[in-house]
Structure formats: structure tokens, C-alpha cells
Amino acid sequence: MEVVGDALVFLRTLKTKYGLGAVSVRVFGYTHNIILDPTLAKRAFEHPPASFDPTSITWTILHRVFGAPAASQHQYISVFRRMCALLTKYFLKRQYAAEIIARTATNMAEILPQLIQVPGHGDCANTATQLPPLVRRSFSRATLQALTGKTFLDAHPTLLDDLWTLDESFAELALGVPSWLPIPKLRRASAARTRLTHALEHFITLEQDAQDPTASDAIRSLNELWRSENIPIPARTAILTSIFWAMQPNSTNAAFWMLLRILSTDNLAERIRSETAPFIHPTPTSTSSININISTNTHDLPNSCPLLRACFHETLRLHHGPWSTRRTRSAITLHTDKETYLIPCNEYIHVPHGLEYTSETHFQDAKTFNPDRFLRPEARTESLHFFGAGSSMCKGYAYAEASILVFVACALHTWDIKPAHGQWKLPRAKSTGGVERAVEDVDVSVTVRRL
Ligand code: HEM
Fold first, then answer.
1. For position 185, which CATH number holds?
2. From atom 41 of ligand 1, which residue's Cα is the shortest distance away?
3. 206 lies in a domain?
4. Burial 173-204 (b: 16+ CB within 10 A, else e)
5. How far is CA 196 from CA 71, 76, 97, 158, in A?
6. Fewer beta carbons under 10 A from the terminal one: N or C of the chain?
7. pLDDT higher than threshold 60 for residue 19
């Protein structure tokens, strides 16, 4: 995936300099059609869902990356649609998603004030730390705990690190590189996957025996479905790992970049604190720490806090390069006014939605973080497709947005975060095919806020 960044530059050149609407390449015997023109991409997603195979790509990833046994493919395909319906219900539908968002907010209110140690009474102490691990220990923990419950995560303290270790080898494993090869990174990924599998076997059994009352309704419903369809435990652990993974790196990286961008832009943290003050109520405690009370309607943050939401969009515009990938189940035709493309059956279509996100023709001063651009009446976010498009679009986008917004607001109300070396500097980033990952530390000094 290191090549994704360069590939985007190359594809942008093909589009802008040579006016190409789509290009095809053959890799390992398959044809991959990369759609560069947004009109063609729109036409592709207008085709009925039946034109695409909904499971071939997800199954390949489930098998190669998350270790689902080959023998469970048929059962996976038979429950796929019902699983997607459950994910849509619990992460996208307002009345159900409110439960998981509220659980996440409660976790954040508990976890954030505890993370920065305040030794005894008196002045708040400065804690020197790095921003990416601070976001993982707070945001990742709060979101995963919202799904699994606390009991399970406390019993498996390496689980989050294991997910990240597996993520580092995602591209190689998805391409089919065997995990047993003596390559240190792959060996680490394989060991992490084994630990994740054991932990989740334990979790599924606990949940099944109703011994963990802290697990979410979403997890309970998924497990009920798998039980009723006799999905074997190894397939369930692989599917659960894949759901945890879908939840984690993109969201955590986005939360990190959003917090950093706000902190490093003049006066923005203060503006966000005022905007979110009706939702987040910090109160001092006797031990120079603070309690965070979060209003029960946090799922309304995206609608009630336009500046905070604009920061989320601006962060994704600058740090996210989403792709949609489909495999055709029948031949499809794509038209613009000038061109027609025929894509035969059993070929891949890839849409790199982010080609224009940092182009001056679409955004003035495109490289600058300027959330106010999304507050203008004429601003349009519908064409940005941060979460993909069509029937296989992200199943967690409403939750992703709400959880990141709550986290950033809570972090700004809980902590004063300053650059350790006097000035903010953006770390080098690696393209991932999703939200970029920082590959350098960001040293910060953090204090619990004085109120
Ligand atoms: C900032 C955070 C996130 C971003 C940027 C993101 C982005 C995406 C993108 C671009 C896709 C591919 C869509 C396509 O092929 O057209 C996707 C798929 C998916 N995402 Fe997310 N996602 C995020 C968070 C989440 C969360 C929190 C969940 C929680 C369950 C989730 C669950 C999924 C699932 C299940 C799919 C596969 C959908 C399918 O194949 O039908 N995502 N996501």
C-alpha cells in the first residue's frame, strides 16, 4: 500500500494531462479497470447491486487476512446480506446507532480524564507523551469497548495492539502473501492474528453463555444470527476480527489527524470548545482532575456543531484517499457524453474517489487546512464520497462521524495539549488506501485543563 500515494499522483496525471476517463491493467490474470472520471464512476454505482458480486472481495480478505477457514465460504455467503443488514441497523440507523454512540461517549468520559496522571492535589502535572498512542489508548479503547464491553477488553489487554499489528501487514496478506513466510512483519501479523482468534473464541463463548452482560446489542444480534445458522466458531472469530478492524484504523487515524489539525490551527480549539460547550460539561474534582459529563444527545453533534463537522470533512479531504472496489457479475456499460466503456463480466472496477481532493481546480488553497470552506452556503460534501458509494458503501459512517466528533470535543475539553518542542509540525504520513497513518511521533505535553 506504500505505492497507493504514488499511484494516485500517476492516475491524476493520466486524467488531467491525457484526459483519460478510465484505464485497465492486468494483474495476476485479472483485469482491473480504474475509473478516473467521476461521471463514469457515478454511472457504475447506478447499476443495480446484482451487477456486482457482493462477497468475492470481502471473502478473499476474510480468508487471507483474518484467517476464515476455506470450508466456511458457502456459509459466509449465505449470511452476508443479513450481517450487512445488522451492521446497517446498529451503526447507521438513528434510533439504534444512538445506543452505541451513547456507550462510546460514556466510555470516553471515563477513560480520558484517567489517562493523564495527576499526582495528588495542587497544580496539574504536565505529562510528556506522543499524540498517536494517546489517541489509540483513548479513542480506540472507547470505541471497541462500546462494542465488546469492558470485561472482555480488560481480560485481553493486547487486543488493540494486535489489531494494529495485523493492520500493518494488511496489504501483503490481502494480496495472498503467505503469513508463514520468514518475513518479520508477517510473522508478527500471524502471531497477532492467533492471539486475536483465541481472545475472540473466549469472547464468543462468554457472550453465548450470557456471562458478559456488558457486550453491546450489535454483538449479541450478530452472535445470535451466527448461532442460528450454525456458523462455525473459526469463521465467527474471523468475521468479528474483520468488523473490529473495519471500525478501528480508519477512524483512529482520522481522530488523530483531526485533533492535530485543530490544535495546530490558530484559535480553532477555542472556537470548537465554545461550539461544543452545550454538550460537554467538565467539572473539577478534589484531586485536580476533572469529571466529564456528556449530554445524552451526543448523536446530535454532527447536526448541532457545524464547525466541528467542517473540521471532520476538512481532515478527511486532506488525509483520506478512499477507494471503492467491485467485481462485475455481468458485463456493464458506462457512458459519458463523449465516451462509452464496456466492462466485461468477472473484471474488477476500482474508483479512487480522492483524486481531486487536493487539487486547486476543485479547492482554493487546496493544501491548507481551512474548515471554514465547508461552512460556506455553496459548499458541497455529497460529491466527496469519503465512505465509498453504492450498495457496498461503508456500513459504519454515521457511527464513525459521531464517535470522532465526540472524541475530539471531549479531548479538547479535558486536556490542554501543547507541542513538546515549541511548534506544531505535521508528521510524515503513509498512504493506506484509507485514512493516512502517521509514521512519525508527535511529541506533546498534556495537562488536565484548569476550569
Ligand atoms: C473514518 C472512519 C471510516 C472511514 C473513512 C471508512 C471508509 C470506508 C470505505 C471507503 C469503505 C469502502 C466502501 C466502498 O467499497 O464503496 C468502507 C467499507 C466498510 N466499512 Fe467503513 N469507514 C470508516 C469507519 C467504519 C466503522 C466505524 C465501521 C463500523 C462497523 C465500518 C464498517 C465498514 C464495513 C462493514 C464496510 C464494508 C461494507 C460492504 O462491503 O458492504 N467503517 N468503509
1. 1.10.630.10
2. 392
3. yes
4. bbeeeebeeeeeebebbbebbebbbebbeebb
5. 20, 20, 26, 9
6. C
7. yes
- Asked whether residue 428 is domain-assigned, the answer is yes
pLDDT at 378: 85
Distance between CA atoms of residues 254 and 88, nearest Å: 21
- Region 17-44: what's the mean pLDDT? 89
Q: Is the pLDDT higher at 448 or at 374?
A: 374
Query: Is residue 395 within 6 Å of ligand 1 at its C-beta?
Result: yes
Please identify, by atom number, the ligand 1 atom nearest to the C-alpha of residue 242. 35
Distance CA 151, CA 34 (A): 45
Q: Given the CA of residue 403, which atom of ligand 1 is nearest to it?
A: 27
Provide the domain count of the chain. 1
CA of 242 to the centre of ligand 1 (A): 11
Q: Which atom of ligand 1 is nearest to the CA of 400?
A: 27
Q: Which residue, 351, 5, 1, is CA-closest to 170?
A: 1
Distance of alpha carbon 257 from alpha carbon 236, whole angstroms: 32
Cell numbers given for 400: 464513525
Confirm whether 36 is domain-assigned. Answer: no
291 - beta bridge partners?
283
- In whole angstroms, give the CA distance from residue 108 to residue 345: 47
User: In angstroms, rounded to a whole number, what is the distance separating the alpha carbons of residues 437 and 433?
Assistant: 10
List binding-site positions.
394
Q: How many CB atoms lie within 10 A of CB 349?
A: 26
d(CA 429, CA 437): 5
345 Cβ contact partners less than 8 Å away, ≥ 6 residues apart: 328, 329, 330, 331
Query: Is there a domain that residue 2 lies in?
Result: no
Annotated binding site for heme: 394
Amino acid 286: pLDDT = 66
Distance CA 247, CA 325 (A): 19
Ligand 1 mean position, distance from CA 91 (Å) = 11
254 CB less than 6 Å from ligand 1?
yes
| Residues 419-437: tens digit of each pLDDT | 999 999 999 999 888 999 9
Q: What spacing in Å lies between the alpha carbon of 396 and ligand 1's midpoint? A: 6
What does the DSSP 8-state code read for residue 137? Answer: I
